[in-house]
Specification:
Amidase, EC 3.5.1.4, single chain, 15 strands, amidase activity, AS_sf
Length: 483
């Protein structure tokens, strides 16, 4: 029996039944990594000796009658999470020797749940790209097409899952970093509601690992099935024990519905600022057809939907102003000069991003206040609908593009070029208001590349898009291993 592509849920059942040991699962996963990862380059920091020791302890614990949610399950962790004894670099050469002294809170939760950590997965420089390459660890490739990226910044995790390197992975997301790699590699991911899962220890190597309320970024689960996302989210959810003084599990509300026929779903496949490529449009429609066939109530338009152009503008303003706030002051002065030269009529996303680089606190407060109006709009929308289905990016995985100036890169949508970072508008739709979004496989393109869509749900109702993901998996199928 080969176990590498079984779901975590299936592996838990096999371990409980005594059909396999954690040591056997771990040895098989390590053998597969040693055989295949020279090409894929997903596992940038292997930790095999400690993984084997953890697997042995898991088997001993099970023999004593212990049972924990992930006891004995081999998993991987995005490089950006602190793991004591392993480097955390975020792909930044000056920090190649940074060795944190303690585990990130989510790594601690993984280990407490009994998981066996195989190692860390590759990321882009500073987690700032839609690809996964850096000078320290090199380039991760897409297991479906070696000339294409697996996405970023959790690209190593998605490539690892698609390659059978462990059953689950920890990722993070501020600009689609969980959802885009899942879409590009044909796996599942869930961007939780903002603040749902504690993030301490998922921090740049130059900064202290303290509890922080992040403005847009979240940590979340990646897997090869929808039910596995829920399994890992249950381990991850809850605030930081440092802020409460106690470990606290968060009771999320149940999914709104159990049957597909009870769901009310809004389907979107067009954005005013960027076209949707034919492969992704076909994936969205495949899901829409399955919903209709399953008896769900499907809408294609709603006056309650917040304005997509303003949503994308707000997202870029909040994202960029936050990410450049630590720029050296001389860079800031150069940016101010460039912004002063922009035409007032230029409302392109490139111009929005440039202006956001020199936002004042007053500018940010204004954008934040407009975000609250959007959040209220989403609350009203989710009184009429249970979920929104839409693209994650406009295209399947694109060819590697390592142009050192990302502003010179472009994304090809059905033969027409668009600015590289404009493809983030769909990811930002859920990120800007802090909504949960589940990425699911939705078939393949005519070239055989995976295509995914996202299911956006109401705030703190993460179980609703997760349940819809399960029902759609039953209806249209889910993960398939690349040939």
């Amino acid at each position: 029996m080969e176990w590498s592509f079984q779901t975590a849920e299936e592996l838990v059942a096999a371990l409980r039944a005594g059909a396999v040991t954690s040591a056997e699962l771990t040895d098989e996963a390590i053998a597969r990594i040693e055989r295949d990862d020279e090409v894929i380059n997903a596992i940038c920091v292997p930790d095999f000796d400690r993984a084997r020791a953890a697997a042995h302890r898991a088997d001993q614990a099970r023999a004593r009658g212990e049972d924990r949610p992930l006891l004995g399950i081999p998993v991987t962790v995005k490089e950006s999470y602190d793991i004591a004894g392993l480097p955390t670099t975020w792909g930044m050469p000056p920090h190649r020797d940074h060795m944190p002294a303690e585990d990130a809170v989510q790594v601690s939760r993984l280990k407490a749940a009994g998981a066996v950590v195989l190692g860390k997965t590759n990321v882009p420089l500073g987690l700032q790209d839609i690809q996964s390459f850096n000078e320290i660890y090199g380039t991760t490739i897409n297991p479906w097409d070696h000339g294409r990226t697996p996405g970023g910044s959790s690209g190593g995790s998605a490539a690892a899952l698609a390659s059978g390197f462990g059953a689950l992975s920890l990722g993070s997301d501020i600009a689609g970093s969980l959802r885009t790699p899942a879409h590009f590699c044909g796996v599942y991911a869930h961007k939780p509601t903002l603040g749902l899962a504690a993030n301490r220890g998922m921090v740049p190597p130059s900064e202290p690992a303290l509890p922080a309320e992040l403005d847009l970024a979240v940590v979340g689960p990646m897997a090869r099935s929808a039910r596995d996302l829920s399994l890992l989210l249950d381990v991850m959810a809850g605030p930081d024990p440092l802020t409460l003084g106690v470990a606290h599990r968060l009771a999320l509300p149940s999914a709104r519905h159990e049957r597909l026929s009870d769901f009310r779903v809004l389907v979107l496949d067009e954005h005013p600022l960027i076209p949707t490529g034919s492969a992704v449009r076909a994936g969205v429609n495949r899901v829409a057809d399955a919903l209709v066939d399953g008896g769900a109530r499907v809408g294609r338009h709603s006056p309650l939907l917040p304005d997509l152009t303003e949503a994308a503008t707000l997202y870029m303003q909040l994202l960029i102003s936050g990410s450049v706030a630590r720029f050296p002051i001389e860079s800031y002065e150069q940016l101010r000069t460039r912004v002063a030269g922009l035409s007032a009529d230029d409302q392109s996303l490139d111009a929005v991003r440039l202006r956001a680089m020199v936002f004042s606190h007053r500018d940010w407060m204004e954008a934040n206040n407009r975000r609250e109006l959007h959040r209220h709009g989403w609350r009203q929308l989710f009184a009429e609908f249970d979920a929104v289905v839409c693209p994650i990016t406009p295209t399947p995985a694109f060819p590697h593009d390592h142009n050192p100036n990302p502003l010179e890169r472009h994304i090809d949508i059905d033969g027409v070029e668009y600015p590289y970072f404009d493809q983030l508008v769909w990811a930002g739709l859920a990120t800007m208001p802090g909504l949960p979004a589940t990425a699911i496989p939705a078939g393949r393109s005519t070239e055989g590349l995976p295509v995914g869509v996202q299911l956006i749900g109401p705030m703190y109702e993460d179980r609703t898009p997760l349940r819809l993901a399960e029902l759609l998996e039953q209806k249209i199928g889910g993960f398939q291993a690349p040939k």
